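Sat 14:20. Reprocessing the chain from the morning session after the first attempt stalled halfway. Input below, unchanged.
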Amino acid sequence: MNSLASSVFGIPIPVDGDEDSASGASVVAIDNKIEQAMDLVKSHLMYAVREEVEVLKEQIKELVERNSLLERENALLKSLSNNDQLSQLSSQQAAPSSASPAQPAQPNVSSA
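Finished this time. C-alpha cells:
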C-alpha cells in the first residue's frame, strides 16, 4: 500500500513508529504547495480583473464622450427649431403611432 501511494501521489507514507515526524513534514509540504497554488490562482485572477477594469474604463470614457456629443447636438437642434416643431415632436414621442408605413407585400415566387 505504501508503494502505491508513494508512486501515485509522490508522498511517502510511513508505516511504523517514526510516522509522526514524517507525516508532519509531508503535511507541511502539502500545505506549502496548496498555498503556492492558491497564490498563483489569485495572481491570475487579479490580472484578469485589472484587464477587464481597464476595458470597462475605456468603454465608459467613450460613452461619456458620445453622450456629451449627443447632448450638444440635441441643444443645437432645439435652438434651430421653433416651438411648433418641438411640441409636435413631443406629442409624437408621447403617443407612438403606427406612422411608419407598412412594408408592401413581397410577391410569392416559387421555383417550379
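The mean pLDDT is 80.
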